[in-house]
Design a protein that fits this description.
Largest sheet: 6 strands, mixed
Number of strands: 32
Structural class: alpha+beta
Radius of gyration: 33 Å
Strand order of the largest sheet: 25-29-30-28-27-26
Helix content: 25-40%
Length: about 675
């Protein structure tokens, strides 16, 4: 009996060693290490034998999800260093009421993603948001003590009516947010209702919502007070750690060091770090090394000499194991460590002679430089005059930037946003108090015959003053090709969010707001006798708050006021009305035709080249003719019972406008 008692620990350690060896063999044999573009490093893993207990990842329809849970919790990213984190999508908690304050639907947000105790919701990387109009919601965590839980975190949101809350403002009116404590292990929320917190006769705000979201990843919008909580989730950052051992208890680094067969920091150059969010520990590679500390030989040497932005050296760099050496070049010396203090040349006699020669050369260079500067000034003056500067400098309200101003605004043209109608578009920041962000675009090269055309175009754009038309902030005329400075649209073009970023959800309300704003911008242009001539998703930009801005008045560059026939037909084939394409006759109704195509793209989220016919317009007309409805082409994301009537109305008007306008335009020629 005594022999068996002493053999038990030995057998236990042998079993652990065998399990570790088996895992190492599985990793060497090859485990799937990515899913849906997300890297899955050990201790995470996909498939039997490829992960540590509690760290399973499942690859479902090419989407990584957390294992050990009945809910499909999507994983956005997994990281080992510098902090052990997992970014996931967790659902929103909600509770909805009828006009008598009776609860008609509720979900507290609880998700069993932590059955193995691996994860804690990061208190430093997330914050708690509460949305509602007479609302107190809180979350809690920790063992009981004086009260049922150790921590409580929540806040109050109140709004008197639908006009009280403001987009972007979350200070208690319709929206509030607070930091959360450490140790939270679940997404569960607790709602306060009834009594003082009555929701009776509150139809303008029928639901309460609460969610924990990664800091900087959510901005309040009043439309969210009526969002569909069942279909909404938010990105959240989880802290993870090695929290379990073979004995079933959570270990610190000091305790784990006494159990080498169960310690996970196995790489030769790894170190153990105690978790700051809950019990347990995690592993890092030691200074001078990087990689995966949870694998044998997973931490490898960093070549610091190839990363001098991180590891500076003012002389000759030589990589060493776990560090690097830095010495001055021959003939140079430093008054300290060359890693921190620059190397300066020593000054023997040949060096002094060389210095004298260098000074002479320097003065020669200065003379040549002054001559070059004078030449450049004359060149700038010529460009200014050639680009209509003598005319535009008299225009009231137009800011004319110098070449030096523009270089400073764009940080020497370092950040390219894309390509505009005539050239590259750069991001910049104006030197005003609010540090206004702008977009700087190249214009067409101006010669003597085009001075009048260019100056008229600038004045046309300058007088465009409407929230849905991209505002011209100024111009620079000292360059070979003039540059125009516009307000910045932070969310890119309508094409970007409709076609390029398919994962971004676009509610019916948001699409309708974009359509209405774009229509207002076009209507304003037409009221100013300006025809756009190139209406398409690329030329509808979106601000930070997704407000549409009409940009690139394509053919206004080619038409003078009151003219209707363009000298040159320019535009995008899929959006151009047939009459303008064939005759050059451009009227406001031509823009309306193009805008109808844009609306069709917006509600279908399909591109103009589509279907068997190769044309979205023809395909839509065919389906409408055969099915008496365009519903089968509508985007599934917005086809709901509450939205289908307005979508059908929009589809019907698109059909009537595209066909009717074509016939009307043709008959008017």
């Amino acid at each position: 009996m005594a022999t068996a008692f002493f053999l038990l620990p030995a057998l236990l350690f042998a079993a652990l060693a065998a399990a570790a060896k088996s895992l190492t063999l599985d990793l060497e044999r090859g485990c799937q290490r990515s899913c849906g573009g997300v890297n899955v490093p050990y201790p995470f893993g996909i498939g039997t034998g490829c992960f540590r207990l509690g760290f399973e990842i499942k690859c479902t329809d090419n989407m990584p999800v957390l294992g050990n849970t009945s809910d499909n919790i999507e994983v956005l990213s997994l990281s080992l260093a510098p902090r052990p984190e997992a970014k996931v999508m967790l659902p929103v908690a909600y509770q909805c009421y009828d006009s008598t304050d009776y609860t008609i639907s509720t979900y507290n947000g609880s998700v069993d993603f932590n059955s193995a105790g691996v994860y804690r919701i990061s208190n430093t990387r997330n914050e708690l948001f509460v949305l509602g109009c007479n609302t107190l919601i809180y979350t809690s965590s920790g063992p009981n003590g004086r009260y049922a839980y150790t921590y409580y975190a929540g806040c109050v949101a109140y709004a008197n009516d639908t006009h009280s809350a403001q987009d972007g403002a979350c200070a208690g009116v319709g929206c509030c947010h607070v930091d959360i404590p450490s140790g939270i292990t679940d997404n569960r929320m607790r709602f306060t209702s009834g009594g003082y917190w009555s929701h009776a006769n509150q139809t303008f705000c029928p639901c309460d919502y609460a969610f924990i979201v990664e800091k900087g990843n959510y901005t309040f919008r009043t439309a969210n007070l009526r969002m569909d909580g069942r279909r909404t989730s938010m990105p959240q950052v989880l802290d993870w750690a090695i929290r379990g051992s073979s004995s079933g208890s959570s270990l610190s680094c000091a305790e784990a060091a006494t159990m080498p067969d169960d310690h996970t920091c196995v790489s030769k150059h790894s170190e153990c770090v105690d978790s700051t969010n809950g019990p347990g520990y995690f592993c890092n590679c030691t200074q001078g090394y990087e990689g995966n500390p949870y694998l044998d030989n997973g931490c490898t040497n960093i070549n610091e000499c190839e990363r001098q932005w991180e590891f500076p050296c003012n002389g000759v760099c030589h990589d060493t194991e776990g560090s690097y050496d830095c010495k001055c070049h021959p003939g140079y010396e430093s008054r300290g460590d060359p890693k921190e203090i620059p190397c300066n040349p020593k000054f023997p006699l040949p060096a002094r002679i060389a210095l004298g020669v260098s000074i002479g050369v320097f003065f020669l260079v200065v003379v040549l430089l002054l001559a070059f500067i004078m030449h450049q000034k004359r060149k700038l003056a010529v460009h200014f005059e050639m680009n209509g500067g003598n005319i535009l400098k008299k225009v009231i309200g137009l800011t004319i930037f110098t070449q030096k101003d523009l270089s400073k605004i764009t940080k020497n043209y370092s950040e390219i946003l894309g390509n505009g109608f005539f050239g590259k578009v750069y991001k910049g920041t104006l030197p005003d108090e609010s540090k206004t962000v702008v977009a700087v675009k190249s214009f067409i090269k101006v010669d003597e015959e085009r001075i009048e055309e260019f100056t008229e175009e600038v004045m046309i754009q300058l007088k465009m003053n409407h929230p849905n038309v991209l505002k011209l902030m100024g111009c620079c005329l000292q360059l070979d090709v003039p540059m125009l400075v516009y307000e910045f649209a932070a969310n890119g073009s309508l094409r970007d969010i409709v076609h390029m970023n398919k994962r971004q959800k676009l509610s019916a309300e948001l699409r309708l707001d974009i359509a209405i704003g774009s229509a207002k911008g076009l209507s304003y242009m037409h009221s100013q006798e300006i025809r756009h001539g190139d209406v398409k998703p690329d030329n509808i930009l979106l601000s930070e708050k997704l407000i549409p801005k009409i940009s690139d008045f394509g053919l206004s560059k080619l038409l003078k006021l009151k003219e209707i026939i363009a000298k040159k037909v320019v535009g995008c084939e899929g959006y151009m009305d047939p009459v303008f394409r064939n005759t050059g006759v451009l009227t406001p109704k031509s823009d309306v035709y193009s805008f109808g195509v844009v609306l069709l793209e917006l509600i279908s989220r399909k591109q103009t080249v589509y279907g068997q016919s190769g044309s979205l317009i023809i395909e839509f007309r065919h389906i409408y003719h055969t099915e008496k409805s365009g519903r089968s082409m509508f985007d599934d994301e917005i086809v709901t019972e509450e939205d289908i009537l307005i979508l059908e109305e929009i589809g019907c008007r698109i059909k009537v406008n595209l066909i009717g306008l074509y016939l009307e335009l043709k008959l008017s020629v």
